[in-house]
Amino acid sequence: MGKYVRTFGEIPGCPEGWKPPSGKRSEVRLAGLHAHDIAGISGTAHEGADAIVLNGGYPDDRDYGPVIVYTGHGGQDPKTKKQVADQNLDDSGNAGLVKSKLDGLPVRVIRGFGEKSSHAPTDGYRYDGLYRVVRHWFKTRDDGFRVCQFLMVKIGSPYDVSDPDYSDDIVIDDASAIPHVPAEPASRTKITVNKINRRADVVKEVKSLHTNRCQICGDTVELPNGPSSEAAHIQAVGIPHNGPDVIGNVLCLCPNDHTRFDNGALYLTDDLKVVNALTGADIGSLRTHPNHKIEIEYVRYHRACWVKEP
Amino acid sequence: MGKYVRTFGEIPGCPEGWKPPSGKRSEVRLAGLHAHDIAGISGTAHEGADAIVLNGGYPDDRDYGPVIVYTGHGGQDPKTKKQVADQNLDDSGNAGLVKSKLDGLPVRVIRGFGEKSSHAPTDGYRYDGLYRVVRHWFKTRDDGFRVCQFLMVKIGSPYDVSDPDYSDDIVIDDASAIPHVPAEPASRTKITVNKINRRADVVKEVKSLHTNRCQICGDTVELPNGPSSEAAHIQAVGIPHNGPDVIGNVLCLCPNDHTRFDNGALYLTDDLKVVNALTGADIGSLRTHPNHKIEIEYVRYHRACWVKEP
């Protein structure tokens, strides 16, 4: 048995709908889809989570198909499976799912026969595609124990929106709490999935090189599970700018400086000084890293969007 | 002729596809769709822009149907229509579109027969639905003059995403620069439009009461067109939290504190003290406004998501 190589996104040879021919969970691991044979979450605090298994292990799970409320790992008695302690973010699986949320990493969802839901396979296991973690929180159960929960939406589905507040697109039809699922636009699915897989690598690399420290102000936004930051394109991607999604076109910024940079309140000179566009003041040098080369053509493109030069 | 009442969103009696029976622009104004008979943008810096007309006035416009690159107002000689000066954000129409972008206000798009595009009507004017402004920038034209431009996407279309970087969903098929437009999911359109109209009022009111000052740190993020902030729900909307979209459930925060609040790094006590969840330290009182009553039930819901209480 080889070492599990953590990969984010699709695994070649295992398209959506793939089932292990033997029906065994270990074959899911050997295919490279999930690191473990028992634990639900495949991931670490540092790398993020690349996959989860839904197999009926936690009664607080809710499976609506393209939308899942997933319960984290921990606090169960291994023999009786009863909750005997609180869950927390020290658990590497739970911390991994938070990391995947913050970095926008795609998470493979595998459903097993043990799940009591109309979306589960009747036997064995099935790979059901890529999901995004849009929100997490803690819930106090009726027995008083706390569990960590994650709202996950299928990438490319109508619920796949970057602002978690927009999860109210999901309409609960009746008291049985089954959300209304509009028909999915097939052509959009493919486009979105391709995009996410591409961006995730760049985002991860830039944030990691700068350990989530803002390249403009030097601060990090500290969260309970560690520091966080945003990956900001210099020359915007998408029409009409069509900037490339490469590390030389991305900065690691705090959310406030990301807003300032995207709205022209800050720009960069050719020698990477940061200028306050409102006052014209040079407010210091961009923090750089030797392995993060910023391409000057993107800096010039961004500046031309906000400053008239002779 | 009555005074124009600026209204954001749909106008009763003027559904998408509505055309003025007389074919005249003045009837568009009288119907309450747009404030002016000549200017392209209906809006002010303070209120935001509620509507635009696309009628071929600026050669830098690009109309892809659900996606529009719209050129701002100003700098043209009124007689020759030639560009003779730079555009800027002192213009109330341009500043209004930036305000609509920052506050998420829906903008009515009206196309006129003067537009040279397959999406324009052959005669008169037509109301073509609600769009969102996702990005703005300045472009230097070949003649050296600067124009302000706005990327707008139709609400409910596959391009309607809150993160402007995701505008790369738009695939340019060929050199004619016509983007590929996947079929739109009809059922989703309605849901999204209802949601946006609802949120826009709450967002506008909260930001206005606090003049974009963060209720936690007291800072504002200053942009070239004025201060900016984010409207943050206390009890999250959408499943499974289902918090209401009302002013008593919304805070005016800077992007950094919004990230901290949504990830449990900060929470509020019943007497509206702000607590740093990482250290347990009371870091001061929430800044309040007499006309912004925060409902304590939402504060308690948010706190229960992040703190275990006895």
UniProtKB/TrEMBL annotation, chains A, B:
Residues 11-154 form the YDG domain. It holds the Pfam family SAD_SRA. One of its GO terms (biological process) is protein ubiquitination. It comes from the Bacteria. One of its GO terms (molecular function) is ubiquitin protein ligase activity. This is YDG domain-containing protein. It comes from Streptosporangium minutum.
